[in-house]
Request: fold
Amino acid sequence: MKRTVPASVFLERRSYRRRRMMDAVRLLPVLGAMLLMLPLFWPSGAGPADEAIAMSTAVIYVFVVWLILICAAFGLWRVLWFRRAADLSETDIADDGDAA
Amino acid sequence: MTSVNQLVAVSLAYVAFLFAIAFFAERAAARGQGGWLRSPWVYTLSLSIYCTAWTFYGAVGYAARSGMEFVTIYLGPTLVMLGWWWVLRKLVRIGRAQRATSIADLISARYGKSNLLAIVVTVMAVIGVTPYIALQLQSVTLSLGAFAEPSGTGGFSNPNSAFWVAGGLALFTVLFGTRKLDANERHSGVVMAIAVEAVVKLVALIAVGVFVVWGIAGGVAPMLEQIDASPIGTWQMDKSRWVALTALSAAAFLCLPRMFQVLVVENDDERHVQIAAWAFPVYLLLMSLFVVPIAVVGLDLMPAGSNPDLFVLTFPLADGREGRAGLSFLGGFSSATSMVIVATLALATMVSNHVVMPVWLNAQGREGALVSGDVRNVVLVARRASILMILGLGYLYYRFSGGGAALAAIGLISFTGVAQFLPALLGGIFWRGASRWGALAGLSIGFVIWVYASLLPSFGPDGAMSARLLAEGPWGIGWLRPQALFGIEGLDPTVHAVVWSLTLNTTVFIIASLITFPTPLERLQGAQFVNVFELSGQPREWHAAMATSEDLMIMAQRILGPDEARKLFREEADRQGSVGHLPEPSQAFLQRLERELAGSVGAATAHAMISQLVGGSSVSVEDLMAVADESAQILEYSSQLEAKSAELARTAGQLRDANDKLTALSVQKDAFLSQISHELRTPMTSIRSFSEILRDTEGMGQVEKIKYASIIHGEAIRLTRLLDDLLDLSVLENGQVNLNVETGKLADVLEKAVVTAQASGSGALQIRRRRLNEAVALSTDLDRLAQVFINLMTNADKYCDAPVPQLEVSVETRDGALCVVFHDNGTPIATSERALIFEKFARIDGTPGAGAGLGLAICREIMTRLGGDIRLDPTDVGNRFVVVLPEQAALAAQ
Reply:
């Protein structure tokens, strides 16, 4: 989105923080995909030397990663939501995200 | 034991309950009290139709067969939701901006409102979703069978009950989804009902899970031990399936018609997506949490050979807990019904908008859009028929696939089918170069491969394909074997189908887009989709003059309903400020009308209907382009005209100014001539009369002669001086004066001026100076400057009317400029006359003296030539003339 040239090179601290939060929102699924694809490297007991990971470990791993991702998404949402509620006069998050 | 009849009764009661919810929700919405209907939580729960009976029953069976692999089906959507910013945000915005009614509508709108594409997508969606609907039929039938078997009720047969289940669901959906006549409204009642169903199925599954973990296994730790000791106790993973299924479920989550319906069409507020981004993953996590424990305990406790797909149900049943089993049944029933309702509604909308309506409109011909009668009835009948057809297809699939395959396998076939929309969908919203032919080609090739490699083999050997064909390929061509295309063997069949169909789909889509050229409308829509956050304008494409408001009104009434249409037209009339109820068919109005109609019958049909009225039935994009070209030319021409007329206006203004100046100059010239003749005449008259006296009077005394001669002499001097002044002023004004720049002291210049002024004046004026400040060196035309000073001093001498006339001459520095101030103590010049005193022949009324009124004019001309200024400063006492010395003169002085 086109913006007028800012008067200062640096953003105000507040909007700087918000933009980094938006970066985090954008990167979260990438992190999630990486973590969830990690089990691909686990031994599956096919070879004679490696011993397969126990199912309980796998279950715990997947659900803990899942929960962490949800918590991160929830945290980011809260931060952005309440920050926006605090200053409604500024451009909305979506627009801000585009410019970032 | 609970009999099947009791279960049917419970189910019917449950359905009645859902009806009541939907009814009250709709009534609340109609009364405008439905704020809570549009909460983000309802939105999130409505997304749960992703979790169908496949999840409710099939996930456990899946886990019992393949361990943790089942979770990929929920990880994909989780990642899509977490990444809402990338795709969902844009999809929802576009869906709302374009008023998309279905995924087929969105894709066709993106590629130039192409109805062909809409039909292709619709057909593919119907075929792709059919196995999925069969899956729901199968699971409800199986769950009924689970209750029937132990009780030994006679007469229960799976195919028969499947038929009744299909019929019941069809009736249910028709009543639920197409009850209302307003075909374009959001289904707030349905959404509310499926939100309730979402809660029911979650509670039912968690109830079984809690019972298994704490009731049977005895807590979390023993449960984990039991998991490790079970047949699925180690991490056994087909790596390609783990990746492919996660990606596939993510793709299907976006492309499934029913998911598009709840994600985009039923979306009320874009911000709900942000909340669902974390809330829906929570729901998925809770749905998956107890799947492995139930599977493990089921494998342990249930007799060998029992169907793991039904553990959720058979478990409490075997344990004698019929209440809990009933709850499980309701959970499964909820899962199946909510999915079937939304999926068939979505598909029926697509079928009626993109297949039935265009055919019907064509059949009606040119007058199609004008025939009286309510099109809405046609739309509703088409939708109901579509619902019956789709459920019928599901039933047929169920019958012919034998109902034997595992639930998960059927679900994956369906997923692969609808995932074929992904390249066209994502390409459409992110790549402006994506073209209709690209989308058509990609979809077709993906669809063909899916049918060949996934759908037909799913009927089993010798089902739709002969076992020989499966094993050896058609005509014995090995590299065309359905499950080993291009000779690549050893792949899992699902992964094989996903990889080949999507890879070739994407490749063909891109290549065909690169080599074809999109129509103008496609390019227009492409820009609107890809830059949806930058552009909010609508494409301008209607040549408005050809449609009459009456025709449009008739058409709109038939699609939107009389009240809605009248309201829309009245609003527009008010907005245009016209008197009647009918607005002018302006461009803006036609676009708005098209969007409103698109909400009812889809973009392609709405476009076709408007074009029937507006431009005849043969409005081609080329015509539109010609119109656009023409208007572009007109625009350009008119902007040129505008520029020219602005230029003319400027020139006229300049001429007017020049004329004013000339008129003013002419007036000045007249005034000047009359002044000058007056000034010249007065001395001339006295000279002539006195010279006549001298000539004609005899015997005049010497004294008298001298007296008259000196009068003549004085007048002649005055005349000379006047002419000198005039000459001087003329030279100064014409800029022909040669400045004689010398260096000298201000004190000397003033001294000379004072001496000259006093010599020619009356001598009554006292001149006071501050010699201390006058010690300033100057570099300018000193004679001219002295002339100015002399003039000011003689003026003071002549006009100062104080009893003791005094002139104070002081040197000051103001704003960095050197000023010589002449301040007398006479009567101040009136404010009104201050502006005039520097003009030629300006003399203040009522003052004595015989000046021609040129002195101050000459002073001003001189100071202007020297680069300085002279002005009269307002003051309380006397008059205060300020001579501002030129800057370079002062600088030189330092």
About this structure: Residues 67 and 73 of chain A are 10 Å apart (CA to CA). Confidence is low (pLDDT under 50) at residues 89-100 of chain A.
